[in-house]
Task: inverse folding
């Protein structure tokens, strides 16, 4: 069997459809997240936290005062991005607006789930040809493209692999962080943090709303938490397989999907939808299309 | 002479000191020393092994149609994340990915877990406003909120009158005009009793989250507290 690790896969061709799917999902997700009332709420409460940014304070203040405008502009540009309209211009514009919009938000809300997942892929996509298919740009360019010939199909591969590397960093780092310093990782295996989440968030979780009772007694039964901790660690560490072979993509993505469904069920929302967006790119790296029939 | 070595210094002196320690000290040295050495072996060894593995592929990698800017961006992002991880430091937009990385151990928890929640005092009875529930499109029953706003309103900003006012206005804009009051939901892990009090006793006691964050929810009945 020929090797299918990341470096080998980078030499393979890829279908532009995976990149287009990633662009569309990312654009819709960014637009959708900005419509769901966080900005009006933060404008009402205006309480800064201890979180910091690399931007100077004066700029942070300016961005805060411009937040409604930034939110509107980012939303519009995200729709353009999803449609693949003027993509060469819109992609860097979206990247810039996204960073600026979320700067004042991060200073007032310290659970950085959306931008943790989305920011790095947006940077990669600046150099990627995301709008060669399924885009308004492609409709206009199709005649010109036919005249100039098809591009090297490997150019659609590296952005998917780069996004996969970012995906691996997210989960691998989340696992490694538990082992710094390493004795804390050994203690993490007791499952205390999982018990803490399940206990303190029980009344704020679907497990309470849907079942009306916990899965088991979180106060008196502690051994399942150790098993859950080991399973969680193994699931997070398994992402490294995505770099080593394509044979395990289904298993790794399935495991992470299961972990996020579990977390959602116990009151830790927010990760699942972002996981699903990046999973498009990860799934794309498992395929080696026959370009004579599938380009 | 051997006696001199063991009693005055050098390796023999060190061994003698070590052997004279209680067994618990030796045990601790191994338990904490081995992971410490492994940690540094990993920090030094993994990049070395990775480099050995990647080096033969470098000519092929250089021939790939990846723009130079993208290569630099990839390397910069990777290095920034390594730094954020090693220093366990977040500063937007470089974020340390370490959610839930510290275990509080397995202390005793009270068998009754409690949460203060607002409710709509409707003619048919109290309707609990689960703020977290509004943050997920599959479960929301009153407001089309995101995870972020429901998290912020439910945890970080639960003590602010602005949060209560915002929630009230959002509910009104959706047609929920009943008075918004404060109640107390509780679940007893011992008896499995699940209840909601519409008139909790004052002053408010810290609930499951209040004990962690040392803040109670905003009480519309006593807005000045």
Result:
């Amino acid at each position: 069997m020929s090797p299918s690790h990341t470096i080998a896969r980078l030499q393979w061709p890829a279908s532009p459809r995976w990149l287009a799917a990633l662009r569309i999902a990312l654009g819709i997700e960014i637009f959708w997240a900005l419509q769901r009332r966080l900005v009006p709420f933060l404008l009402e409460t205006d309480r800064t936290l201890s979180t910091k940014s690399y931007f100077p304070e004066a700029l942070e203040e300016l961005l805060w005062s411009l937040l409604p405008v930034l939110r509107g502009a980012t939303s519009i540009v995200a729709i353009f991005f999803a449609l693949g309209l003027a993509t060469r211009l819109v992609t860097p514009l979206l990247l810039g607006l996204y960073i600026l919009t979320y700067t004042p938000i991060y200073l007032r809300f310290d659970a950085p789930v959306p931008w943790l997942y989305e920011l790095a892929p947006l940077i990669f996509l600046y150099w990627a040809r995301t709008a060669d298919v399924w885009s308004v740009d492609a409709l206009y360019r199709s005649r010109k493209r036919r005249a100039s010939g098809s591009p090297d199909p490997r150019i659609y591969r590296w952005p998917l692999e780069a996004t996969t590397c970012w995906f691996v960093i997210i989960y691998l780092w989340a696992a490694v962080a538990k082992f710094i310093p390493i004795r804390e990782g050994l203690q993490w295996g007791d499952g205390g943090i999982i018990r803490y989440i399940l206990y303190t968030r029980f009344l704020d979780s679907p497990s309470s709303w849907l079942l009306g009772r916990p899965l088991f007694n979180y106060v008196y039964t502690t051994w399942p938490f150790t098993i859950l901790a080991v399973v969680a660690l193994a699931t997070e560490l398994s992402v490294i397989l995505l770099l080593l072979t394509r044979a395990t993509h289904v298993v790794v993505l399935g495991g992470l999907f299961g972990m996020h469904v579990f977390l959602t069920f116990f009151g830790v929302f927010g990760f699942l939808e972002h996981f699903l967006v990046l999973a498009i790119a990860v799934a794309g790296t498992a395929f080696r299309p026959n370009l004579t029939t599938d380009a | 002479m051997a006696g001199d070595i063991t009693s005055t210094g050098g390796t023999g002196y060190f061994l003698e000191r070590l052997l004279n320690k209680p067994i618990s000290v030796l045990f601790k040295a191994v338990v904490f020393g081995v992971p410490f050495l492994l940690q540094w072996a990993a920090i030094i060894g993994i990049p070395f092994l990775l480099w050995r593995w990647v080096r033969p592929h470098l000519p092929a990698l250089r021939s790939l149609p990846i723009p130079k800017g993208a290569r630099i961006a990839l390397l910069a992002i990777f290095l920034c994340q390594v730094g954020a991880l090693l220093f366990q430091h977040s500063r937007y937009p470089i974020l340390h990915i370490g959610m839930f990385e510290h275990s509080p151990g397995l202390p005793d928890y009270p068998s009754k877990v409690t949460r203060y929640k607002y409710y709509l005092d409707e003619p048919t009875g109290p309707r609990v406003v689960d703020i977290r529930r509004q943050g997920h499109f599959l479960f929301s029953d009153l407001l089309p909120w995101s995870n972020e706003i429901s998290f912020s309103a439910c945890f970080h900003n639960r003590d602010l009158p602005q949060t209560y006012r915002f929630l009230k206005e959002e509910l009104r804009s959706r047609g929920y005009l009943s008075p918004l009051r404060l109640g107390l939901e509780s679940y007893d892990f011992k008896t499995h009793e699940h209840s909601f009090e519409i008139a909790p006793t004052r002053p408010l006691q810290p609930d499951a989250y209040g004990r962690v964050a040392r803040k109670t929810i905003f009480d519309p009945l006593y807005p000045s507290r």
Summary: Chain B has two domains: 2-64, 112-213. The first helix of chain B runs from residue 2 to 8. Chain B touches chain A through 85 residues (CB under 8 Å). DSSP finds eight helices and four strands in chain B.
